[in-house]
Specification:
The structure holds two protein chains of two kinds. Chain A is mainly β. Chain A is built from no helices and twelve strands. In chain A, a hairpin with a 4-residue loop joins strand 8 and strand 9. Chain B is built from no helices and eleven strands.
Chain lengths: 115, 114
């Protein structure tokens, strides 16, 4: 069965600190896709990144970076120099490889960035 | 370009009442999904559709029905609401079933069943 685990329920940091959000997944598929979404206090879901199982290169987008390691089934998300606007719930998700586009979400990590 | 629009945004129901949530997309996407979000559980798939006239069950389909009579609309129905259906509901639409395409989410519907 496919599963996504975000063991960190809540994280609190002070502005400008770096923070890493952990995501561990389980799947039997050899082809799969991993996602990160941000849910700010306003409630909408904001797509951050998609990564397929064949691309293990780390990715950086501004203050955001992602570390994908198939050996440990992890897809961790790091925010460098955090800002108050980064305060949100962050979800990691896994997509099946059966062409349905269904997403399996982790439980979410609530990040609070204090000024 | 509105993307995915959910109606209504908020609703309070009494136990046993029925209602329909509407999801409308203007992106001509084939695939549409209904998820529910509960505290500490992330989002879970209720039902989905891979094209007009088709529907399929997701992870938590009990107590819900769906219809996709028109490509742009995906309706989620609660025939007899229960307090356990208190949740935030999200609709999403994607251009195809290929896993390498992102789904576009609506803004959510907060439903409270009392």
């Amino acid at each position: 069965a496919q599963k996504v685990t975000q063991a960190q329920t809540e994280i609190s940091v002070v502005e400008k600190e770096d923070v890493t959000l952990d995501c561990v997944y389980e799947t039997r598929d050899t082809t799969y896709y991993l996602f990160w979404y941000k849910q700010p206090p306003s409630g909408e879901l904001v797509f951050l990144i998609r990564r397929n199982s064949f691309d293990e290169q780390n990715e950086i987008s501004g203050r955001y970076s992602w570390n994908f390691q198939k050996s440990t089934s992890s897809f961790n998300f790091t925010i460098t120099a955090s800002q108050v606007v980064d305060s949100a719930v962050y979800f990691c998700a896994l997509s099946e490889a059966q062409n349905t586009g269904k997403l399996i979400f982790g439980q979410g990590t609530t990040l609070q960035v204090k000024p | 370009n509105a993307g995915v629009t959910q109606t209504p945004k908020f609703r309070v129901l009494k136990t046993g009442q029925s209602m329909t949530l509407l999801c409308a997309q203007d992106m001509n996407h084939e695939y549409m999904y209904w998820y529910r979000q509960d505290p500490g559980m992330g989002l879970r798939l209720i039902h989905y559709s891979v094209g007009e006239g088709t529907t399929a069950k997701g992870e938590v389909p009990d107590g819900y029905n769906v219809s996709r009579l028109k490509k742009q609309n995906f309706l989620l129905g609660l025939e007899s609401a229960a307090p356990s259906q208190t949740s935030v509901y999200f609709c999403a639409a994607g251009p195809s079933g290929l896993p390498n395409t992102e789904a576009f989410f609506g803004q959510g519907t907060r439903l409270t069943v009392v």
